[in-house]
């Protein structure tokens, strides 16, 4: 089990070291789809 945690931590650390640009997005709910949408509080 410790190997799994170690591997996950190594992956997270590697991903944080990558120079990636983050583009902010706006969340738009589809209000015309005819489906019921529930939103968490």
Automatic annotation (TrEMBL):
Superkingdom of origin: Bacteria
Listed name of the protein: Uncharacterized protein
